User: Fold these one by one.
Assistant:
Number 1:
Amino acid sequence: MPQTERSRSFPSRLVGQYALVTGASQGIGRAVAVRLAQEGATVAINYFEHEERAEETRALAQAASRDRGHGEPDHCIVKANVGNEQDIAAMFETVLSRFKRLDCLVNNAGFQKESPSDALDVDTYRRIIDVNLNGAVLCAQKALAHFVKHGGGGSIINCSSVHQIIPKPGYLAYSISKGGMANLTRTLALEFAGRGIRVNAVGPGAIDTPINEAWTGDPEKRGVVTSHIPMGRVGTPEEIAAVFAFLASDDASYITGQTLYACGGLTLFPEFRDNWAS
């Protein structure tokens, strides 16, 4: 079973770092922002809608910093549609004018919508690709330009999915965006490794977040999902956030270009637990 908040021991690996987390008003993004704050980072919390949720994330991050003895860091919220190039430029201008420096970018913003692939609305397809993939590319470009200009390296961590490698029928645009995230991660990692810049990704599996609300609150549907997970349970946002914090820290100083799957074993082809093919 996952550890409780009380039983966890949080290191302080990110003291003095400044991070930007996109799509951080809820779900995995919120958990990542809070975990980075727990480990000592100062965090910019991006949101597009629901400012009150972003403020809740900021308040949780402030409390986490205080509880861990990190004082009162200047955590902030910043509104931007990550699917819009002008919004991204303005977001980075705002964050860098406030923090002066950025050490870590977490490309987390994303969404999905179910549709038969042969009936997928083109506008919906474009919006998903713009937010999930193109937005990550444009944010990465801004972060890389900053890292290169100021020297000293930096870290980009992309929130991908098990659907980076597992097909997801009915979610064509989402699957394409996550498949693209794999090559985005590897290409940038190779291109900038010599400058001390690391680029990695995290591939969550079935996680109890709002993006999965179609099944998380339905015991029958949740049971179907769980039946396919080798570890026998759904993951929590906090478990995924721990992987992001590791990749942002010096504990991962020799890791770049990798996707770490935090999926309870979904990428192990669970249908082959029984040797029906032998």
Number 2:
Amino acid sequence: MLEVDVTVARREFPVSARFRVEDGECLALFGPSGAGKTTILEAIAGLIDPLGGRVELDGRRLTSNPAASGPPGLPVWRRTVGLLRQDPGLFPHLNVSQNLTYARARRDDTEVQRLVDQLGLGALLKAAPRDLSGGQAQRVALARTLLAHHRVLLLDEPYDGLDHSLRRELTALVRAEVRGRGVPAILVAHELGEAQAFADVLGVFDRGRLLQMGEPSELVRHPLSRRVAELVGYRGFVPLAAGDGTGGAALSAGVHPDRVRLGAHPALGHVFVGQVAASRALGLHWEVDVSVGAAQVTCRMDDAAPRPGTTLHLTAIDPPLFGPDGQAHLSSRPQEP
């Protein structure tokens, strides 16, 4: 089990996080670029020293805390922590086969062959890193990291720039390896879909703070603040009338494009009336922007998009409600008769 409770000094803002990752569990830290996600991974790996706090693995303290007495932190090479970044970091003077088996504590040709087969590296074993494509180099780097049998696996946006089908394949492989080996794993991502595909637990990170953690789909359905809602895909916030089940409070309903139904269905949520402002094709569907008073919401439709200016009734299904302070309030979803 990995336990993290650290604060790291940065020029723009301090970065703090507190969480625990169980053996065989996958945690994704999701948020915008520059939020501090990579900083947390670097503190776990021992590449930077935290201002305070601790990192423990299986009860073994990895970090030192300058503000408190205690044992010194472990150096990078003794932490048994694997960190895979966007840059594969392959040794240029070694071929693929030599990169894969570099510094392995034990030789297990069966395991090497299994990963080579799974990652489609069989024809590349004698190739030099300079002759590999970006996707090929990243697959070699992933195989090398898995073959090292680290006690913790850290992934810092390692699939950025790769095509979506390859991302899905690598994500499924890593999840299976993490579960089979029973090691904690953390992925840093700035795309929600990639984070959700990996995560048993999703953490939303912004400006150095871990805003919310939870099961991926539930966190999207029930964001605890307007900022979390914005980060996980809510595209509109509509002020509610004082008599609209708010108890007189000045609340706004968060509207997610995937949680909108055409027509008035008051038993399902809040009903809004608006005019179509714009539309665009999205795969086999249409994404439609609708002006509701001074607010604008986005919904997705299966049929052809209505023309601009068309009046629509929309129902936001069980939307989260936010007060002026940006914090979530209890849902005011109407009770079914």
Number 3:
Amino acid sequence: MPVSLTLNCPIRGKLKAAAKSADGLTPSEESRRIEAIRFLLGKGYPKENFKVEATVKKLGNRGRNSVRADLAVLDVPLTSIESGDVDALLEHAVLLGEIKRDNKSAAEAKATQVDPLLDFAHKDDCVALYWDDTEQRIFWREHREGERRKDHEAPALSLPPFGNKITVQPLTLEDTVPTDSLLDAFRRIEDILHGSGIDPEARYGVILQLLLTKLYDEHSHETTPTEPLALQDYKALGTTPANALKQANKALSKAVGYYGKHLPQAVPKKFEISDETLLELLEILAPIGILASSQEVMQTFYMHFAKHLYKWDLAQYFTPVTVSDFIATALSPGFGEHIKDPACGSADFLTSAYRIGSQKDPNYGQCVWGADNSANAVQVAVLNMLLNGDGKSNINLEDSLEKCATYEDRYEIMICNPPFGTQILESRKKVLEQYALGRKWEEVEGVLQPTQEIREKQQMGILFVELCVRQAQPGGRIAVIVPNGYLGNRSTQYMALREWILRKCRVVSVSSFPRFTFKTSGADVSASVLFLEKRDEAVPDSTHDSEYPIHIGLIETVGWRLGDKKAKPVYKRDPDDGSFETDERGNFVLHTDFERILGEMKSSDAGKEWDWLARDSEPSDDPGWSIPAGEVVGEGTLCLDPKRWSRKAMELRQSIAEKPHFRLGDVVDFVEQEKGKWGAAEVFRYVPLDLMAGGGYRWSTMRGWELPDRARHSAEAGDMFLGAIWGSVQKWMLAGGDTDHLLVTNGCHRIRLKDTSPEGQDRLVDLVAAFSSDAYATQMRSFARGSDGLAEVGEDDVAEVLIPEISSEDIRESIRPFVKQLLEGHPSIQAKIDDLLASGELDIPIPARRPSHSVLV
């Protein structure tokens, strides 16, 4: 199916343009034209003087064939000349443009399309514009009486304001423009080096030299943005090739001296390429503003670049930019506020914080600190920071857990995505004894307290949470990503973590990510980010000082395809026609919830309580959702899992509670599962989760020795089985009819009505209706505790599910036949046929059961 883009042209308004690529995700030529139009409007070219798709030469019989310029700008309004009058258009054309989607055929396009545009032009001062994804250049001719004409070219940035003559000036930092694909620009540079006979390994060495020189050049001009840069488009300035190479080598030497101590390998201080090749490379590189390019552009380039230069596969290191930007923006780093990531990995959080902090503090690099115990990670982090403009790079190779006390109470902001998982453990006693959460905790008079006994092992993720809090200054703020199991599991070590957090901090916000958000880095868990503010003084236990709001957010879309290790991007699309939305530069817009969540943070009660929370974000029109901290403290397990406290779950329960209803635990008993002492030769009917649906069920016939360990529940008529795992809470069944030798998987809760009287049995009407609804499944999912797809809804939580009471007798009467059908064991025609086949009443052959799903017949 053809895919289109929704583009906003400043001249023609909203456009639908074809995305001319196989995947539909490559910007079209039309979007490049809009980029060029915006550039020209910025130079003062009048909107009314533009002509899109202008014919500049008619050819063939009656002019049926023609040569067109993708764009023409006149010195008079377009309405002042007659439509279709080519001569009149060329008499007034001051600019003729050729637009290409990409740089693949740039040389040919310039020779066969751009150069002829100047031949067709009538005005001596007419300029030809060439524009693609990598190069944007202008061409003009100098006509002097008695002399041969002279052709010139320069970066498009050299184009003067409308009505002025071209005078090529040296580029300044203020002149440079960010690129949407630094990777494409450097691929073009690599092609030039390849064409110059430079082997692949040496190419990447030259690219590193160019990159460091360009970074140093821009960084050193941040305080003097109107002064000429060291690296220029020397050809446009008329500099001789030899002098250009000399100037570039001088700039390179300074850059290597500045950055060299941070780099994993030594970098030569001279370019080993010809001066002509250098001129060609700088035509592309000089006009680009690398520091102004987005962090996502830099990350995409760096992952490709480092893979070839250092033979590093960086996918395992990087946190997606949308995530790191979201968290850093919520923390709102300000002037002079020091921020540290003690498990910095590739420093993505720090590069986001650096970019945000630099908007308020030009020297913010001196406030950014990172540590990691992996030498490779430190090298990755340092280069990432350099690439994003920080020439200081306070990244250290250090065992943060071992040196926690060294930096106690030091930083205004702590930010971390620590290594977490039940198998990622710290077992060194000298480390564990430094931490309150490295000790065993016991309940004393109803309150958890640490003992003097050191644990044999503790999850590193838990220790990093304590480290982040301890290294923050009193009143400092902390953001740490944790698996949802830390926030909801009932076991003592997780409840101790939450108790410790609530004593040492106020919980400002908890925002959950959808499952598989971090799958690309190998973490197949559901996780949330905790935003905390460290108390000036710790309180004795969590019941003290709980009268404050906690923002709760549920992030649903993150900008890439979840569950896909390649993490392909997901872009916003028009809900009516499916066309891709684009920004004002014609770029696709990632489909994420982060901007919405930031706005809700700021507009929430928590945002009003803590003015730093998402301080620089636009507030949401819809007030964000907050809960009183007392709700968490009063829950009994100190659950901080945002699913439980989400607006969707809590407003749903409130809506049910406002009408006749009952607690599920008030009308049913939970029946314990059995331990399966089944006879090896006995024949059973086994019901797994995937054979339950809508109250009904099917089964697989098995002998006792074939039964899986999961076959734990025997069934009696009238028993109900509810899916107990997050991913299967919509599964349920009502056992009916002949239940002899019927066994059900242990992935369920087995429940039974308390009241066996006819009136009590009629509660099945309410239960069957509720279990078949999304209202029930939503409550169950919100109660699930754990950090993966096996997160479980415990009996205590299932008992709290609210069941709407059906008050209309007519509706109850209409549901009763379905309940009766379930109790008879015939919830569907399939179940009826299975019964008839098993009894032999239906004479259809029963083939041998397939031993596995991979058997073809």
